[in-house]
Design goal:
Layout (H helix, E strand, L loop, with lengths): L1 E5 L5 H8 L13 H16 L9 E8 L5 E8 L10 E11 L4 E11 L6 E8 L7 H16 L7 E5 L11 H5 L1 H5 L3 H8 L6 H6 L5 E2 L5 H6 L8 H10 L2 E6 L6 E6 L4 H4 L2 E7 L9 E6 L7 E6 L7 E4 L1 H7 L6 E6 L1
Parallel strand pairs: 6-7, 11-14
Antiparallel strand pairs: 1-2, 2-3, 3-6, 4-5, 4-9, 5-8, 7-10, 9-10, 11-15, 12-13, 12-15
Length: 341
């Protein structure tokens, strides 16, 4: 059984091992022991903080295989993007160009540096040790952070977005970066990512990135083709997020041109499809009538699992086997939240 829970200090070694097998250029996971430790400490402080409105909190979750205790995945959610500054992205714009003298009017596709995503809540850092063979635990890891937001809505904004890593080649080079960002930063894509540390809210970005619209037709063909396209390693996350209710928005990442998915929380399945239920112990029954739920406990001691059990659509109780109750740390009569996988 897999369990998603908030990260702990004891997980730093496991996260360091996990970071070592992540694809270069995927920029949302700290890689060094110091940066991982700092992120873990920040997450622990965020979970412990008394919050009235979303601010600088970042919540890091781990996917644990309960039998072995191995950490096989991690995912994060930031309460407010750009909490340490303004969050920057490129907005896809259409600029109207008109010449009355020549009687010409046409539209031009352009990219404009913008900060409109600042203060939206941001999903980030979705990583699995073996994503090619991932099963239902991937959906659990992706959804658990949203279930936490359902349980603690005051900690998050009304809108969520997710930047996905863009296209890079076998050497970690980004055609979008080479056509645009490299002209201003004067460094390779991976070097720039290391300098920025995966952030999109650093002062250096607004200092170096162009403040005027960039005409897309003037970019090389490979850079235009890469816009809004995801890194192959991000396909699993993309599929899970679109099934959740996220859609490609009008923004792309300023470094690699990857897509940015966005949604209002009320259009997400975790918010509109989740149900609060009271736990009861499952009786022997016909497994063919079971459905699979992601089930989570309260925000104070958050745990999330997947479990096959009788449907609870017409009942105020959720029948859980003892193993599921033990993994969640609940007993009959306790309240949980559940949503169909």
């Amino acid at each position: 059984m897999y369990v998603v829970r908030p990260v702990e200090l004891a997980d730093v070694d496991a996260l360091e091992r996990l970071a070592a097998v992540i694809t270069p250029g995927v920029h949302t996971l700290p890689r060094t022991r110091d940066t991982i430790g700092a992120f873990v400490e920040r997450s622990i402080a965020s979970f412990a903080a008394q919050v009235d409105i979303p601010s600088e909190e970042s919540y890091l979750f781990v996917l644990e295989e309960s039998t072995s205790g191995d950490i096989v995945g991690t995912a994060a959610v930031h309460a407010s993007a750009g909490s340490n500054g303004t969050y920057f992205a490129f907005r896809n714009d259409v600029i109207q160009q008109v010449s009355r003298d020549l009687n010409i009017s046409h539209s031009v596709h352009a990219l404009t540096l913008c900060s409109e995503l600042t203060a939206c809540s941001q999903l980030a850092g979705f990583h699995l040790r073996d994503r090619e063979h991932a099963g239902i635990e991937a959906a659990l890891l992706s959804r658990a952070r949203l279930l936490y937001a359902v349980l603690a809505p005051h900690r998050f904004g009304d809108r969520f977005f997710v930047p996905l890593a863009g296209v890079t080649d076998a050497d970690g080079q980004s055609p979008f970066w080479n056509a645009l960002g490299r002209k201003f930063f004067k460094m390779d894509f991976l070097d720039a990512e290391r300098v920025i540390g995966g952030s999109r809210n650093r002062t250096i970005i607004v200092e170096l990135m162009p403040h005027y619209p960039v005409y897309v037709p003037l970019l090389p063909g490979d850079a235009q083709a890469a816009m809004g396209q995801i890194h192959p390693g991000g396909q699993l996350a993309f599929d899970l997020l679109t099934a959740e209710g996220f859609e490609a928005d009008e923004y792309v990442d300023i470094f690699d041109g990857g897509p940015i998915l966005a949604a209002h929380k009320l259009s997400l399945r975790s918010f509109c499809g989740s149900q609060h239920r009271r736990v009861e112990t499952a009786q022997e029954g016909a497994a063919e009538h079971f459905v699979t739920y992601a089930v989570a406990t309260n925000a104070e001691r958050f745990r999330a699992i997947t479990v096959a059990c009788p449907p609870c659509d017409t009942s105020d109780v959720l029948s859980l086997p003892l193993a599921a109750q033990q993994a969640l740390g609940v007993a009959p009569g306790d309240n949980v939240i559940c949503v169909r996988i």
